[in-house]
Amino acid sequence: MSNSYVLVINSGSSSLKFAVIDSKNGEALVTGLGECFGLPEAVLGWKYQGKKTEEAIAAPDNHHQHAINRIVGLMESLGFTKDLVAVGHRIVHGGEKFTSTVRINDEVLTEIENLSDLAPLHNPAGAKGIRAAMQAFPSLPQFAVFDTAFHQTMPQKAFTGAIAHELYEKYGIRRYGFHGTSHYFVSREAAKMLNKSIDESNFITVHLGNGASVCAIRDGKSVDTSMGFTPLAGLMMGTRSGDLDPGIIEFLLKKGWTQEEVFNTLNKKSGFLGVSGLTSDARGILEAMESGHAGAKLAFEVFTYRVAKYIGSYLIPLDSLDAIIFTGGIGENSLDIRREILTNLKLLGFVEDVEGNEAARFGNAGIIGKSELLNAVAMVIPTNEEFVIAQQSVALL
Ligand code: ADP
After folding, report:
1. CA angle at residue 108 from 105 to 110, to 5 degrees?
2. Where along the chain is the active site annotated (predicted)?
3. 207 marked as binding residue
4. Share above pLDDT 70 across residues of the chain, in percent, rounded to a whole number
5. In angstroms, rounded to a whole number, what is the distance separating the alpha carbons of residues 141 and 103?
6. What mean pLDDT is predicted for residues 19-25?
7. Which distant-in-sequence residues (6+ apart) come within 8 Å of 349 by Cβ?
């Protein structure tokens, strides 16, 4: 039987991640990253069979196209070309237009570009990746998988902001939510692990990476999520503030801050980095805490408290709860952060399973606690967004 590999591309404004995924089992055969696009030091690196290779991209401009052309050569030299059946693109914003994965044609590409108003950094970069891949792989079908699509099932009361309704009608201002592919994947995996039908499963999924979001899933569908109109909303993140009083923005502007300074601070100098004054990286926070760093301890406490508050509030849209699911770099690995979140949830009856919590790390899924009160478990499921992109692309072939 022939293989069914998908080239998964995640194109950013100055970088491009790629992977060749076996759509049957999710195995990543090659993974790679192009960085510093637009600069003279642009590079493309990849990992194949444990060996890392890095090459400079020796071209003055259009580093996306050059990187993808080089990937074509790589596919040929590794002998993957005959097994590649599709190219799957991760696209950040699908607005209200895209509620599931779609095959890309000219109309879809134009729609993605038209949505750039909602995701000015991400969608143009995604479109650039699509154009480059269409040129480099003219015979392969291409698919777009949207970060927002899974959340399009949210009811109007969950996605509507408490602001003038005309802002929604005029500009499309509403909650969209992101990380949808991850929330989708871990909820499906959890249902399998718990031997439940996904259509009858109620979960709170907690994706904690550099970006972080929580999602309430009722009968397998997203009914609320913490990121909003942009990925700045919701939880505290590596460098993003998450929710804050919008009055602070007016206050800082009146103090003479420029608009750019305010939003640069909220996006790039807040979260773990801002509160600790030290680092955006959770591992660095945990290490510094051990050596008594007060800012790191505060960052840990604010982060875990806020995650627990969101989890508590996401019981509201659910009738019952089967599991809280942790994922993302922090959710999959940090014993201490998960423990503190469960401790914060004691009123909901959650008790840590100490051995389970220690075992569910570094790629291992498992149960890390439970609540007799809610008849629910807390668990860890490593996410695999690339696998979803590969599977959904192949499903549409
Ligand atoms: P991204 O959102 O960029 O995909 P990841 O999901 O890879 O990010 O998560 C990155 C975060 O995971 C970082 O804060 C990192 O410190 C944290 N992380 C990774 N491994 C561990 C670990 N063993 N313990 C604690 N935190 C970890």
Report:
1. 110
2. 147
3. yes
4. 100
5. 7
6. 97
7. 371, 372, 373, 374
Reply yes or no on whether the pLDDT at 1 is more than 70.
no
| Catalytic positions | 147
**Closest to 349 in 3D by CA, of 396, 311, 397:** 311
| HEC readout, 10-22 | EECCCCEEEEEEE
HSE (side-chain half, CA atoms, 13 Å) at 193: 20
Q: Is 330 labelled a binding residue? A: yes
Whole-prediction pTM value?
0.97
pLDDT at 37: 94
The answer to whether residue 287 scores a pLDDT higher than 90 is yes
Architecture of the domain whose range is 5-146: 2-Layer Sandwich (3.30)
Which residue carries 């070309």 as its tokens? 81
CATH architecture designation of domain 196-385: 2-Layer Sandwich (3.30)
CA 178 to the chain's CA centroid: 7
231 ligand 1 Cβ < 6 A: no
CB of residue 392 inside a 6 A radius of ligand 1:
no
d(CA 387, CA 23) in angstroms, rounded, equals: 7
Q: Which residues contact 371 (CB under 8 A, 6 or more apart)?
A: 321, 345, 348, 349, 350, 351, 377, 378
Comma-separated ranges of CATH 3.30.420.40 domains in the chain: 5-146, 196-385
Query: Token digits for 377?
Result: 């478990």
pLDDT tens digits along 263-276:
999 999 999 999 99
Q: What is the largest CA-CA distance in the chain?
A: 67
**10 CB under 6 A from ligand 1?**
no
* 281 marked as part of a ligand binding site: yes
Of 239, 334, 323, 211, the residue nearest 283 (C-alpha): 334
Residue nearest to atom 4 of ligand 1 (CA): 209
